[in-house]
Amino acid sequence: MTETTLSDTNGTSNGAAVPKKKILINAFDMSTDRSATKRKLDYWIDLAKLLERGGINALFLADTYGGYDTYEGSLDNCIRRAAQWPMTDPTIPISAMAAVTKNLAFAITASTSFEPPFLLAKRFSTLDHLTGGRFGWNIVTSWKKAAFKAIGLDTPIEHDERYAQADEYLRVLYKLWEGSWAVDAITENISDEYIDPAKIRTITHNGKYFHLESRHIVDPSPQRTPFLFQAGTSSAGSEFAATHAEAIFVSSHSPTVLRPKIDKIRELAKERGRDPQSVKFFATFTPVLGRTDEEAQEKYAELKKYASEVGGLVLVSGWTGIDLSKYPPDHVLTAEDTTTDHRVRSLLDQFTVVSPEIPEWTPRVIAEKASIGGLGPVAVGSPSTVADELERWVREADVDGFNVGYVTTPGSFEDVVELLVPELRRRGIYSETEGEGLTAREKVYGKGQRELRGDHVGSQYKYDVYDESKA
């Protein structure tokens, strides 16, 4: 797959046609909310088949640990409004979805805060094997007090330190995934040897946060290291992303607000010796589609009748540490209103930045925005109208693709596949899968790039170059 292959008839560079960037689309879902069908395997199997039919790049399954209890200082509204509650494990349905698809990739959220690297390495190597390399990991660090208490810890790790911990966590994983097994360790000799133990290195790691002495127990999977996603654009998050992430999830109400953050991370990646364009950015985006603009507006008006504004406030209060129940509906929020530490700093920062789209942030505005589409843009219109908006974000924010959310399920993803995808294909801006059997990384970087790029930090840990005595 090439990133820019079709001509843009709207512009030229030195007299030559300017190539258009192909758009990558991930479908964003969670194993949560009011829909009890999500606790049945058929939901996930049917969704995977639908997304495969639409040529969607990946199904991204978010996760969370613990409930949101900032709003009114209680978990009750989180539970009552089904605001990411209940939440089942997103890992479980992946094998079933992989069995009924050939091209769709899968990415799940998992935290570096709650389990030893060895256990995650084993599980994710297994998933990469069983999906044929169509697996990615959204790396997160955890901050909720409720989640830490659930595993027996009283206090979350401070924001910047948890990124330092995550950096060490990733380096342990690279040693296991990239540096433990030689490519020819499995000999399959007809004599009494299947694997040559001399070609499986014992990893010994003694760091500030983690200690390990073991060979990786799973043989190298198709990608070795799963395709690496990350979310968060705080200062510490950006440094981490520029070092480790191959793709970054970003969220903003405005492309002009988002662009400087993307430019900054690309510059940080360049300073680390990486090709800055190899870091791919996926923006949160929620379309409400109709066959015409009028039909879409009617659908949107109907959907708003069922949106839970309190549910939206519960989530935003949890993400930012601002108890929005304490303020009048038209109170203009600032960073000084935060009441709890350890929260998602990049989301908190959004409320100090305004734009023509949102001139000020108040609980009333947040409730309206968060109830449909979270804190990202909602585009309402025909396929042509929504496609125009996607192209605007690519042009103005320099994003590479979108994490497309749903308003109803079923419904929203069917509209994306049946209405939006054909329009994007007609415009020549939709990334197509070149044949079957590509890994998650190849679907982004092109056929042949199954493993980490040479300019990625993880490549320093490959078996034939890594020297543990110098680590």
UniProtKB/TrEMBL annotation:
Keywords: Monooxygenase, Oxidoreductase. Transmembrane segments: none annotated. Residues 33-395 form the Luciferase-like domain. It comes from the Eukaryota. Pfam families: Bac_luciferase. InterPro entries: Diverse_substr_monoxygenases, Luciferase-like_dom, Luciferase-like_sf, NTA_MOA. One of its GO terms (molecular function) is monooxygenase activity. Belongs to the NtaA/SnaA/DszA monooxygenase family. NCBIfam families: FMN_nitrolo. This is Nitrilotriacetate monooxygenase component A/pristinamycin IIA synthase subunit A. It comes from Lentithecium fluviatile CBS 122367.
